[in-house]
Amino acid sequence: MKPGPFSYVLVDSVPDAVQALSRYGPDARILAGGQSLVPAMNLRLVEPRFLIDINPVRDLDYISSGPEWLAIGALTRHRTLERSETVRRLSPLLAEAVRYVGYPQVRNRGTVGGSFAHNDPSAEYPVVAVACNAQVVITGPAGNRVVPAQEFFRGYFTTALQPAELLTEVRFPAERSAGYAFLEFARRAGDFAIVTAAAMVDVDAQGRVTACRVVLGNVAGGVPYPVKAALRLVGQQLDGAVLADFAEEVRREVDPDPDGNASAAYKKQLASVLARRALELAVRRARKEGN
Ligand SMILES: Cc1cc2nc3c(=O)[nH]c(=O)nc-3n(C[C@H](O)[C@H](O)[C@H](O)COP(=O)(O)OP(=O)(O)OC[C@H]3O[C@@H](n4cnc5c(N)ncnc54)[C@H](O)[C@@H]3O)c2cc1C
After folding, report:
1. In the structure, which protein residues have their CB atom closer than 6 angstroms to any atom of ligand 1?
2. Which of 259, 263, 207, 266 is nearest to 233 (CA)?
3. Residue 139 has what DSSP assignment?
4. How far is the CA of 213 from the centre of ligand 1 (A)?
5. Is 205 exposed, middle or buried, given 0-12, 13-18 or 19+ CB atoms closer than 10 A?
6. Given 22, 51, 142, 210, which residue has the most CB atoms within 10 angstroms?
7. pLDDT by 10-residue block (mean), the chain, 291 residues
8. Whose CA is nearest to atom 39 of ligand 1?
9. What is the pTM of this model?
């Protein structure tokens, strides 16, 4: 398989990348790690006439932290994130999820910005980003704008990015929940997930839930799905009966599309099981951290 003909444009700064995007318009695509774009080009699913390679833009490869945010540059490789002590400390949910992204070869080349911009419905980062209330920084001809993750992901392989815009940074809040968990189910380790689940939980001294967020992936039209039933758990002790009710509510609540890997009914079942397991694990961790 070979891609269609294209012109290759190498840039070494953010302004040059934005200028090239403005110049070549919707016929241009950014090339980051190439782990999603190149296979899609080889299959002729996309045929950009201009490929703007941002790999020399070193300013976009960083992990930094401040009092409010853990900031990750768009060109940061999955592998760098996976190995980062700062990420493990400030966003253990993200650190847990990155290990599920493809295989080591994919994680060595693929980038954080590329995964956000691609918005594969099975991807791990979008679910984590919505669970954490992350933000996406976008740079265009008029400057920067910041979009909450919840509004950034718009549908299958679709985001809030406009043709002349570059994703430059993602920000995760430095303040995190005590309990967290990321789980997914795939046919084989390293494959794209059929369903993903992220949970963030805080508990009080008695073990009652004080804050709870469960987000599912690949069950809601290509965007991460925040489970409504999770909000009703605040104030409760999560015993077996409450968890069983929660799992049943999730099953009723989600309405997944079938895809090449699974029927809608199978995804509903997976969503229910994974949401419950992620929640249980997050609560266990929250109680442990409180002791
Ligand atoms: C075998 C295999 C298994 C995989 N398994 C998984 C998996 O389990 N989970 C998972 O999440 N992913 C998986 N991936 C995809 C991988 O995570 C990619 O790294 C990621 O989806 C895209 O990142 P990239 O840097 O390679 O982007 P590219 O492939 O270079 O680009 C992807 C898209 O994003 C656009 N883009 C890239 N960077 C920017 C930017 N800064 N601003 C604006 N637009 C941009 C490109 O124009 C293109 O449209 C897998 C890939 C392979 C080949």
Report:
1. 29-37, 39, 74, 100-102, 106, 110-111, 113-115, 117-118, 120, 123-124, 161, 166-167, 192
2. 207
3. E
4. 26
5. exposed
6. 51
7. 93 98 95 98 96 98 96 98 97 97 96 98 98 98 98 98 97 92 93 96 94 97 97 94 97 96 97 98 90 62
8. 114
9. 0.97
